[in-house]
Specification:
Blueprint: E1 8-11, E2 21-28, E3 37-41, E4 47-50, E5 56-59, H1 68-71, E6 84-93, E7 96-105, E8 114-121, H2 129-160
Length: 167
């Protein structure tokens, strides 16, 4: 992550019903735009030293010039980007809540590979929606991982004629 003075630091919230938190970078403490950053939060006007986590991103104040080194490939390394779309829904019935999640690969060779997960809230349990979301999503991702591993095992058999051995 690299920032410049005036860029916006955007921190996504763990729940969809909460807006992302946004602040303006006032000072860059790290070398060459690296964290930490002094940020003024737009929602409350306070300033804070921020070490951004994986839920944060930088939105440049002004589009940056592309530099040749930004496109130079690493020697001997290829980078692939894969995207997983996660959808969560809830069904309410007689005081019980059932949370359903789907995790779907949406790019490349694995497009449309899909995992599913479910969580149920008993009518006597305290209603904390994040718990159902977390359980259902984790189960969907686990199911997706199992299906992806099976796709790899099938490919190994198809290309080598020998069954896949877990290592």
């Amino acid at each position: 992550m690299r920032a410049q003075i005036g860029d916006r630091l955007i921190v996504e919230r763990p729940r969809d019903d909460l807006p992302a938190r946004e602040g303006v970078v006032l000072r860059v403490q790290g070398e060459d735009g690296a964290p930490p950053y002094w940020v003024r939060w737009l929602d409350e006007g306070r300033e804070a030293l921020v070490y951004p986590g994986p839920d944060a991103r930088i939105a440049p104040a002004v589009p940056r010039q592309a530099r040749a080194e930004d496109y130079r490939p690493y020697r001997g390394r290829t980078t692939k980007r894969m995207t997983v779309d996660i959808t969560v829904s809830e069904e309410h019935e007689n005081g019980s809540v059932r949370t359903l999640a789907t995790a779907e690969m949406s790019s490349g060779t694995w497009a449309n590979l899909r995992g599913r997960g479910e969580a149920r809230k008993h009518p006597d349990d305290v209603d904390i929606p994040e718990i159902g979301d977390e359980l259902a999503v984790s189960r969907a991702l686990s199911d997706l991982a199992t299906r992806l591993r099976q796709a790899a095992a099938d490919d190994i058999v198809d290309h080598t004629g020998t069954p896949w051995q877990s290592t």
